[in-house]
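Morning run. Coffee first, then this:
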Amino acid sequence: MAAAKTTSGPGGSIAGAARDAILAGVVALGIFGPLVGLKTEQNMQNELVITTRWGLVAIIVGIVIAGRFLLTTTIWPAMTRNKMRDKPAATAGEIAFRARLARWFAPTGLVFLFIYPALMVYFLGFQGSLKWVDNFGIQILIYVMLGWGLNIVVGLAGLLDLGYVAFYAVGAYSYALLATHFGLSFWLLLPLAGTLAALWGIMLGFPVLRLRGDYLAIVTLAFGEIIRLVLINFRELTNGSAGISSIPKITFFGIYSFELSAPNNFAKVFDLPMSSAYYKIFLYYLILLLALLTAFVTLRLRKLPVGRAWEALREDEIACRSLGINTTNTKLTAFALGAMFGGFAGSFFAARQGFVSPESFTFMESAVIVAIVVLGGMGSMIGVALAAVAMIGGTELLRELDFLKAVFGEGFDPDQFRMLIFGLAMVLVMIWKPRGFVSAREPTVFLNERKSISGSFVKEGHG
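And here it is:
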């Protein structure tokens, strides 16, 4: 008599799950075998020698097999059962708790952001706080600002822009060129960089007025690549792939400088011990204020007619036209304002780094910014900020995971696997929260009472 088949969930079996897991392992072996298992190194005779890392390949393939088997037998059946089961309605206490949490989350987070450098200095000292203020604080806030700028185009207006890094590059190179050649101040060049980026946003907006969806994504992707190739090949202006170096630092409105040799150096004026931490803390508060300015302007614009026109355009362009809304102006204002904030972030990036090159503005940067907006929840300011913290902060934390060398060997560099872990994390988040961290959203205009709209009531792919 044939043995009874042991089921692993709705419509599945242990044997089928095992076959599926083995097949996934074979595919993983075919992919990671040559990529991870074979490594070329240069010996003393300048010859390339192939070294093998089959143990690491075996670990990766084992993880893939175990993960696929676990997904098939446990996780996916549980998710199917949860979808089929009716969810109980939230009680009055749960609704009140969520309302209090939402009310206090933003102010508490804002207070923490302002005292973050002081906490790092208190616990780690001036020199110990440099990494945490710069690599985590400043780096994350730059991407928060970029995410909020792109959120205007993608989250509010519903226009998929894959070339947003081009405006970031325009702002960076505008500041770098004008500051190095003409010696202009950052405070003069900041609005100028934003204006130039906004003009390029309008230039991008005109040719794509009739495009939406995949076609718009392809054109904006091409625009970003065109800007990068111009930066590489226009050597007379941009110095090509060598980039622009010796970009002046930002001063405190010309009153205090952070150059060590300057007579009005901040530390000298206040008789403080010399440290580069003062400049990093100053940059932290500057990018924090720029990010808050982006959030303030965006929230105010959402309540104006142009903001409501963006949301109408996102939901249904045909209905938007039938209501008499000028979709041309609506799209151009979205592109221009989103590009302007990208230009602001780019000028700050150039001043912070002191060096810019086309390598900093590849398509991968645009992909990361778009991923931040999508994972955070399109149109949600808090969601985009949380996604930037998770993605950028998570990748920075990989540099600190030295204990993994004890597992994979001394030659293991966790930073090399950053994009692999990044991709896996995105897949898991999309399975867990397909509409982003904050899937519910509140209408900009409401009558008597503000009510959140669940993501389940919004058509897939439209908001």
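The chain has a mean pLDDT of 82. Good start to the day.
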